[in-house]
Amino acid sequence: MRTRPQRREVVQTMAASDYMPTSYPDLSKPDEVNAWTGPSRWNAVYTVQLGELIEKGVFDWSLPVLDWSKAAYSTEQYGRVCDYFIERFRFREISIEPFYEWATMLHRKLVYELMPKYKNLYANLDEDFDPAQVSDRYHKGRSIGSDYPETMLSGNSDYASDGRDEESEDVERGNLMEAYETYVTRYQAIDQCLLDELESMFIGLYTASIDGM
Q: What predicted TM-score, i.e. pTM, was given to this entire model?
């Protein structure tokens, strides 16, 4: 009776590291990143995504219809908020079309409605900030002394013999740990508050679209 030789199954095991790429692109060079991952694909459902407008050169903060630099608190604040705006809304669809109408509305909100309010907040932020401070009372006055208090002030009469300016400031600080806990749990960056008020410029519904499906 002939016996068949038994087949041996060889199981190859692979480590997790075997699935990892052997090299990575220079992330500071968009061309290398696109060649490695594939180019960005914009599949907007209703209007158009901000990132696509940027990629095609349509959206540019230097355009007169978008430039709000004169209304900004400072050059530094302007550049920072512009960068934050793009990072936050890059993959969001603009809320209305055509683009010029949307851009005009965005400019109006920033220049005439939001920055007049937020400039004061940015100014306060530039001052010395103490999260434990409860109150800060400042007093300024002048004490006048006279050798002839019965003399009435009239005409060119000068009855003051001495004067002294007085200034005082009373700063009250609360419990340090309670103040820090409140600060950490409730603090919200002014830039974030500003951009929260621009959410209406984008469609609030997140959708997924693959090749137009």
A: 0.62
